[in-house]
Design a protein that fits this description.
Shape: globular
Helix content: 25-40%
Number of domains: 1
Strand order of the largest sheet: 1-2-3-4
Radius of gyration: 15 Å
CATH class: Alpha Beta
CATH architecture: 3-Layer(aba) Sandwich
Structural class: alpha+beta
Distance between the termini: 30 Å
Strand content: 25-35%
CATH topology: Aminopeptidase
Order of helices and strands: EHHHEEHEHEHEE
Length: about 180
Amino acid sequence: MITWRQVREQDFPLLGMWLEQAHVKRWWNHGTTAEEVARDFGPAARGQEPSEDLLALLEGRPVGLVQRSRLLDYPEYLAELAALVPVPDGAMTIDYLVGDPRRTGRGVGTAMIRAVIARTWEEHPAAPCVLVPVVAANRASWRALERAGFRRVAVGDLEPDNPVDDRAHYLYRVDRPGCGD
């Protein structure tokens, strides 16, 4: 069972360690020094940014991170996705990582995604759907989305988080139960 809590500043060393792991570093283009982690995660931890950084806990132990936000709060990102598919008002997005390499390939990522989506429907009643772009080469990520109930709705070019990646992305969507497209 996955539970959640907001990321706090005392979690920054753990996030830095996770961001240094090869399986995370490949897809998350983040600095890992204490200063860089504080710069990137501090505003959300202090409530100064509209996105949410959520620490995923499995049996009370941290296993991963989910960043969740309303697309409306990030107009440039919204416009980039809207070039590929219609984006409904209130749509949200997530990004995620499993921090401990020993937990990868065991369904933890899929469980995290399912749990955060269930929580999203409860905590964001105006959200009709969640849209998630994934670099096409990141098979493990988009397979976790598919196993969590997302469906691929578009293929297109987006600016990659990591400059070593191709622009080819898959866009995945899950709808609030009872909403549909």
